[in-house]
TrEMBL record:
This is Putative 20S proteasome beta subunit. It comes from the Bacteria. GO terms for molecular function: peptidase activity. Signal peptide: none annotated.
Length: 267
């Protein structure tokens, strides 16, 4: 049996452990893939904004390949380790794998270091995954442009970060958006935060935040064919999660159905 040499010191890095033992996570080897050989599945639209109790994160469910609708049940808002959320636009395949690596990395660090990974460590780890995915993205496949929402124990509040395809990250205050439907959503959020309710977006209630997110995604689907609309007959609703000091809460389909009927379509 082949002996596996230990790591040089307890770094607490799950990604380092994977690559040290077998090179298990190395997406850059796929850099020779050509986008012209197939149509990659893409996902949009995602958004996140602060409200009175934390941060709301939402995404539609559609995935497309060119002008074809490939799926209407894609999970674009993924919970990570109970206190963070990754919202994805771009390639679902690569983004979901990144979410798995992040989740295992955060948990591995907690077990080996007996403490939570720092906010800066979390941000840098996702940046590293995006940088290692760059060869595929430069070839026109596998590109991921995510939003990352995580609870910061030092400030005692959730924080929103958006990334570019190279791994650079920026804090979104009070909101961030991504995907092909983001132009319409971004304009509305800016208007509401500047001239909307007193106190801006961060002052609105939980109910109003959920209603706003449904209306924003419905608006995006009206102008952007790659953004999936709400299909009540098939019980296909957006994925909406709330991040706060209590952890990550998923808004249930029954509540979404009720709000769609009374606050969106019934208006």
């Amino acid at each position: 049996m082949k002996r596996i040499e230990p790591l040089n010191g307890p770094s607490g890095s799950f990604l380092e452990l994977l690559n040290h033992q077998s090179g298990a996570y190395s997406p850059s080897h796929a850099g020779e893939v050509s986008a012209g050989k197939f149509q990659e599945i893409q996902a949009t639209t995602i958004l996140a904004f602060h409200f009175s109790e934390g941060v709301l994160v939402a995404g539609d469910r559609r995935a497309t390949a060119g002008n074809r609708i490939m799926a209407n049940r894609v999970e674009k808002v993924i919970e990570i380790d109970g206190r963070s959320v990754l919202a994805i636009s771009g390639s679902p395949a690569q983004a979901i794998e990144m979410a798995r690596v992040l989740d295992h990395s955060f948990r591995y660090y907690r077990r080996t270091q007996l403490e939570e990974m720092s906010l800066e460590g979390r941000l840098r780890l996702l940046a590293q995954l995006l940088k290692e995915n760059l060869p595929m993205a430069m070839n026109g496949v596998g590109g991921v442009v995510p939003l990352f929402i995580t609870f910061d124990p030092e400030s005692n509040e959730p924080r929103i970060y958006f990334y570019d395809i190279l791994g650079a990250h920026f804090e979104g205050t009070p909101f961030a958006v991504g995907g092909s439907g983001s132009l319409e959503v971004q304009g509305i959020l800016r208007f509401l935060d500047r001239w909307g309710p007193s106190g801006g977006l961060s002052s609105i209630s939980k109910k109003d935040a959920i209603v706003l997110s449904l209306r924003l995604l419905e608006t995006a689907s009206y102008f952007d064919s790659a953004t999936g609309g709400i299909q009540a007959g098939d019980r296909i609703y957006p994925v909406i999660k709330l991040v706060s000091g209590k952890g990550v809460e998923t808004v249930g389909e029954d509540l979404l159905k009720e709000m769609m009927e009374t606050e969106v379509r019934g208006v």
